[in-house]
Amino acid sequence: MPIILEADSLAKSYGTGSSRLSILDGISFKVEQGEFVSIVGPSGCGKTTLLMAIAGLLRPDSGRVSFKGRALDAPTPGIAVVFQDYSRSLFAWKSNLENVVFGMVRNKGVTKADKREQARELLSAVGLEGFADRYPWQLSGGMQQRVAIARGLASQSELLLLDEPLAAVDAQTRADMQDLLLKLAERYKQTCVLVTHDVEEAVYMADRVVVLTRRPTSVDHEILVGLGKKRDQLTTREDPRFLTIRHDVMAAIRRFRAQTPLVEKA
Questions:
Q1: Domains of the chain by residue range
Q2: What gap in Å lies between CA 230 and CA 246, rounded to an integer?
Q3: Buried b (16+ CB within 10 A) or exposed e, 248-258
Q4: Please, what CATH class does the domain formed by 1-78+192-266 belong to?
Q5: Model confidence over 145-172: pLDDT tens digits?
Q6: With a cut of 70, which residues of the chain have pLDDT below it?
């Protein structure tokens, strides 16, 4: 499959002089069209910083991000982001339907009526049929996140970036949303990159897992999951291959955490 996204030697620091803090240190990886890639690493290693860089929302100090073979240094059509804090990313004064329609602002040549019809179809696809005319604040957290995901899909982006999108929902809702995201990614033929702290989630959802080191962060290794596209919350998680990969990733992260002092020097 063709390469849709490439990060090449990305580096990013904050501050200057003695207060300079190196976050990313030469991160490189590629994502093929149609892949679902998970990115994991120890807490505070810069996963969100990396995601913002590959979204074009944050300029790296050095290195290059390419989208479909072209250098990326600003937000671009074809890439959508679902943020962790969905309650702030949704517009409280807009209905759920209008929030999803907003995701179509770059969809040229589509009439307003067609956009609203597509938005209703997307809300139905994420299990929110009948909630189009309500507002985000009238929904539960899990339902709000479904609206955010529908809006991400509404842009008809080729690449969907997911920043801890399920961190704030309960365990059962999280499992349901994992399966929903996999189903919709396949249905809408989207390439996905997921940043998550949850190792089991990373392995369950991904075709490939990218494991990051502690800060200053680089890629430690990548793992091809090889469990097929069809996943099941029970049988997949009991598969010996799943358990082996989960052990590999968790062991790496624990090793990096053990190398990091509880209080780092400035």
A1: 1-78+192-266
A2: 18
A3: bbeebbeebee
A4: alpha beta
A5: 888 888 887 877 889 999 988 876 778 8
A6: 86-87, 106-108, 168, 259-266
